Amino acid sequence: MRGERAGKELAYILFGMVFGVLAAAFTAGVLLLGTVLSVTAIGVPLLAAGLLGARRLGGAQRRLAAALLGERIEQPPPRRELPGFYGRMQSRLTDPYGWRAVAFFLLQPPQALIQAATVIVTWCWGAVALTFPIQQALGWNRVEGGWTLAGFALEPFPRTLLVSLAGLCLLWLAPKAVHLVLLPHRLLLRLLLGPRRPAARIRDLEESRALVVDESAAVLRRIERDLHDGAQVRMVSLIMQLTLLRESVPEGSARELAGKAQETASLAVRELRELVRGIHPPVLDQGLEAALTALADTVPLRTTLDAAVPRLRPAVESIAYFCVAELLTNAAKHGGADEARVDASLDGDLLRVEVADDGRGGATVLPGSGLAGLRDRVGAVDGRLLIHSPAGGPTRITVELPADR
């Protein structure tokens, strides 16, 4: 196993040294040329191409390290590209993993020199010294005269024997020296070409939270359908039966009791319908735009709606809908507003919903208030709640939600 590891590490230095120097030359050349030409139209795309190339070369370096060094370095997260040409340029120029790959390859030449020197001194000179007697016998490296060591004269044969022993020592030390000289390189591989551990952990937590939020939205939709198609239908059937019962009995206490039961059942159906709408309005199944249109027709305000958004994740659509519903209710109930405007738009991967009203203003986030609940609801998906509500109005509240579809 040690011999196999030594062979793979030696092969990695030989192949990796050539690959790393060529990658460093490419990276430095493209970035330098892109910087010089940054005043022209081609400079920025050239810089972006250099960073993209460095990131992909980093992938090749990770695969080489995995094959020969056994370093299983996790791949960095994929780059999120903004739409459009300039969005792609911005995404590539601000890619932290592209810049880290650049730093790795620019540090390759000094590492390659140290690694090459280690291989030459240990493996190469060790092999030359070990075969010194053979070289003398073949006349390749003949030595005349003797050496003097501590006053004792050494003839060529004892001297060649010492050289061979020195070569054997160098070859014995060679795998250890190569392994040692690769330790800084391994550290740079992990630090610069792999994902940052906190970032990877945060990404895992974000994905887990998004999964939980989406599953919660799906569960709420199932509960809404079960209540709408199950309990609500049975309650309506019960009301009809109570109505028939009331009509079939003569005047008296029994008929009066049936009437009260009918009224109670009707009240329960109304409350159940309100509960269903509060869990997941059925109109949301048609999309956020349709849901906001229906909502604007039901609130006690003259509401202008401008919403043209595609279908998004159900959890995001649900949060946006309930935020608008709460804000319009607050505007009518607490703000004394007569008119409101709702604007919903998609900017890249960001859903922005703005609710403005002509009320008295002064809206603030207080513990236990409706706005505090909205802030917590929005924060569940890494969104933001922005409030602009000076005393005397008007009030403008913006909800920003990540809308990766």
TrEMBL record:
Pfam family, one: HisKA_3
Keyword tags: ATP-binding, Kinase, Membrane, Nucleotide-binding, Phosphoprotein, Transferase, Transmembrane, Transmembrane helix, Two-component regulatory system
Coiled-coil parts of chain: none
Domain (Histidine kinase/HSP90-like ATPase): residue spans on this chain: 315-405
TM region(s), chain numbering: 12-30, 112-134, 161-183
Catalytic activity reported: ATP + protein L-histidine = ADP + protein N-phospho-L-histidine
EC code: 2.7.13.3
SUPFAM superfamilies: ATPase domain of HSP90 chaperone/DNA topoisomerase II/histidine kinase (SSF55874)
GO function term, MF aspect, one: kinase activity
Name the record gives this protein: histidine kinase
Organism: Actinocorallia libanotica
